[in-house]
Amino acid sequence: MLKKYWFVLLGKELYSYKNKGDVKHKEMKSLSGVYIKDEQEHPDEEGVMMFPFMLIFPNKRRIYYFKTKEEKTKWMDAIKQSIGYSNLYDFYDVSDNLGKGKYGVVKFAVHKRTKQEVAVKIVKKKDLSLKDLELLKREIEVLKVC
Length: 146
Prior knowledge:
Layout: E1 6-10, E2 13-17, E3 27-30, E4 35-38, E5 42-43, E6 49-56, E7 61-66, H1 69-83, H2 88-91, E8 92-100, E9 104-111, E10 117-123, H3 130-145
Antiparallel strand pairs: 1-2, 2-3, 4-6, 5-6, 6-7, 8-9, 9-10
């Protein structure tokens, strides 16, 4: 069962209210350290199409539903701007696999604006042990020097 709330985004804080116009908020969530994930649209229990996205907090996940795709896009854009989100696919067209390594796969990509061709290493961080994560951080620091 979905609950209806009114939300206000102020900086990196998302306030929820039971009703539009309420003075006292029900809850405030800090968006620091939060990831945003697009979710597939689907009908609700009454057959009305809903447009969701997920906010992944450090200790929980929440899915937010919208009645229109435009409203969802507007909120996602505002939250992305608030949290400083950027996505590889916003800047690059990623295509063919070039190789595979210990931590992930290397793909061919072209920068959308400059058309510069690059190799991009894509890593699944959730599958890494703490030791592997430290080795990967070291590799990133070395690549920054090059």
